[in-house]
Design brief:
The chain is an all-alpha fold. Helices cover 55% and strands 0% of the residues. The longest helix has 25 residues.
Length: 76
């Protein structure tokens, strides 16, 4: 079983056509965030409210990630 030239035997990222794990986690978070808030969207501004909600989800996810990096094992 030989390696193709230019192919590293060490995986350095996701397989081709596969989302990174963090991308799929964010997408899952954003979908749940959007579904939870969709009932409050204005009927005549669905696109605007949806985009705004996605941006809110992105900000919230980044804040959660930042806080998660500071949590120690003392709370486990």
């Amino acid at each position: 079983m030989g390696l193709k030239p230019g192919i590293s035997p060490v995986a350095t990222g996701p397989a081709p056509n596969q989302p990174r794990k963090s991308d799929s986690r964010f997408r899952s978070f954003a979908e749940r965030y959007l579904i939870e808030r969709a009932a409050h969207f204005r009927q005549d501004h669905i696109d605007i409210d949806t985009w705004s909600c996605i941006m809110d989800a992105k900000r919230a996810y980044k804040q959660i990630e930042a806080v998660g990096c500071t949590v120690s094992d003392d709370f486990a």
